[in-house]
Amino acid sequence: MTEPLLQVTGLNRCFGAIQASRDLSFGIVAGEIHALIGPNGAGKTTAINQLTGEIEPDSGSIVFDGRDITRLPVHKRALMGLARSFQITAVFEHLTIEENLALAVQAHMGHSYRFWARADRDLRLTRPTRDTLRLVGLEERASAPASSLSHGEKRQLEVGMALAGQPKLLLLDEPMAGMGPGGTVELSNLIGELKGRITMLLVEHDMDVVFSLADRITVLVYGEAVATGTPEQIRANPLVRQAYLGEEHD
Amino acid sequence: MLLILEQLMNGLQLGVMLFLMSAGLTLVFGIMQVINLAHGSFYMVGAYTAATVTQLTGSFLLGLLAALPAAAAVGMLVEAVVLRRLYSRDHLDQVLATFGLILFFNELTRMIWGRQPLFMDVPDWLSGTVELFPGAPYPSYRLAVIGMGILVAVFLYLLFTRTRLGMQIRAGASNREMIAALGVNIRFLYTLVFGLGAMLAGLAGVMAGPILAVEAGMGEEILILTFVVIVIGGIGSIRGALIAALLVGMVDTLGRVFLPGLFRLFLPVAEADGIGASLASMSVYILMAAILVWRPRGLFPAQI
Amino acid sequence: MLGMGLVALVALPPAMNALGETYLVSLFSRILIYALVAVSLDLILGYGGMVSLGHAAFFGIGGYVVGILAFHSYEAEPLFTWPFIFEGTENGLLTLPLAMLVSAFFALIIGFFSLRTTGMHFIMITLAFAQMLYYFSVSLEAYGGDDGLSLYARNQLPGINLGDDDSFYYLCLGILVIYLYVSHRLVNSRFGRVIQGVRENERRMQALGFATYRYKLVCFTIAGAGAGLAGALIANQTEFVSPGLMHWTRSGEILVMVLLGGMGTLFGPVLGAIVLLLLEEVLAIYTEHWMVLLGPFLVVVVLFAKRGLYGLLTGRKP
Predict the structure, then answer these.
(1) Which of C186, C193, C218 lies closest to A103 in CB terms?
(2) ipTM (interface pTM)
(3) What is the pTM of this model?
(4) Which of B39, C12, C27, C199 has the most CB atoms around its CB within 10 Å?
């Protein structure tokens, strides 16, 4: 087996008396869609936040693309190719859709201490922006403010922003949350299209989506990874059925 | 040695005043997440009311008794008329509206009492000195201020640890969503906290009356030091406010007295006094900057 | 509409001189200078989302740079003797850039500390640092302390007689127009985009890969330089500097101008400065206690007219 793109080893993180990550270990293989599932409060978002650097782990290590990033600040990880979408949509409401995406492109073009040239006439910025607009299907609304988008469209924009920097690993934190059935189909199609081109870590409650898209699944219970395997293995794992599905019913 | 003791007491006394100002304000910040610049106005209302009533009746105690409800009433009125509408707004709106309130209150006092400062006498029964220990006299009035501060600190401690209301307030300061979840009547609680904060500010104003001049704009001078205290102590933390208030009181007082002397050790007198005075006036802000580098959210940050 | 406004401002001095209201020329010089400092505040406030309550500090520093340089120049007493002897100067070509530079330096220091925090903390800390500089200027006994420092004359510029109120007015107008154009380029540049992204959602910007703290600090410093330039002009206009220039109520006043005119726009603050200062003048005619009216007026503006005048006039959202 090849070296994983991202390897998490022995991550621990407490919030007061609650241990949100408990000796958490898993690896993400390049090119795969890896899903992180678990009941509410299992520490999925805490895990993601430690990967992006918003929360520092108490102990353990995170190695990404051959480099230990455990103590690296958020923006440096992003520049290394670790992109994320947020659980609650986090687009720049007062900027236009195009400007939203342009910012994401701009982030990966070196520093932005350019004070004079107009950003909207900069072809190096506008070209990749247009490409991403097309990819997420928002081309026609490019100059509308992001606040005018529907919830599902904001999600698409979110994912577009994460994609604009051509990340090596994309962290999708509950991309389907709050979406109608139509939007869910559209977004899973988009994720399916990207499969193989971009490695993804998918945190999602919608089990249909998870089992149809994921190559590998890690099950989190009380901050601990109780099982990792292919969708078939996870479906068959008695420990998972007991711990996870049992929890879901009460 | 005696000088040091006297200055320590003066620092303590300034610290106590700052604590009275900041205890209420840090709760308002913590619970309602609203920044209120007009807190100094309640201090001014307290001082003016006390000065006026004392002049009319000749009794400092009556002045004090009139000032506390007056400050609390003005505070609750301001909360009900203006601030309540600002809780859901961003901080900028709160800053501007309460800035408007300051202009209003300062000018109103000028219209009522004129531009000349009022002077309040120390009441006769507190005008003497007390020997802290033989050969070290200290003004009784300042001792009374310190005593009052300790009394208020104890009162707040009991209120917040022993009463249901106090625990609700404390829960609100450290976790806003929690009080809503507890089903507390938030509107009433907010008005009450605001009134309490205004009353404490009014008390500080009364105490300051005989020490400083009672004049329009007196509230802003102490307001900014109060902000420094709250930033150092951590927003929403009474314990932080107490410790930071004493710290700021000491640093400010001792800096003013001893820094020029310190610089005289290795600089010519004129230069030493100049640099010493400049540094002393900046000392509490430098302290604040240092603490911010170390702990950006203050010494006792509330969990939000 | 903007063109009409500019024409009106250009035509103001001859018109006022014809009417015999020469006082209004110097009033409008003052208004233009405050417009400049308000626009600089809007760069961090309206575009960057940083609510600073200490902007007047940089305004005051700019003023003091001009004041102190002129003082040393007049007294022929060197400001410093190492590494070279510098006896101050009254040359505007030196004083104006120096005022910007020194203000920018102070903004860098103050921003370095205050930008570690956000929200309420940031407001209080900028206020506290500004007040620190205020007390520092009070303690400058050599430069007049509390009473301030008078200039013997305005600075010199080649080809312009600044002592003439009309010429000075045109200088202020010219600088304001240039500053607006520079700011226009700035907010539409890549840097400007980053700053506006930070205003919208700083956490998201970090997740995209921006070191937001540094961008904010650079923006804060640029705004400080703008305020310093305005301060240098006001020192020349009144031929006087005092700690009052950086008092925190002045920071509040500048903030009011931005909000009143419309934040997040470039012409809003200009409009805000014109309206607020004219309003003060007019109210002062009727009563010496005009602030008792201005205070509640501000409260009403905040509660009911969030978009500012510029927004009302153009129908644009802030």
Answers:
(1) C193
(2) 0.90
(3) 0.90
(4) B39
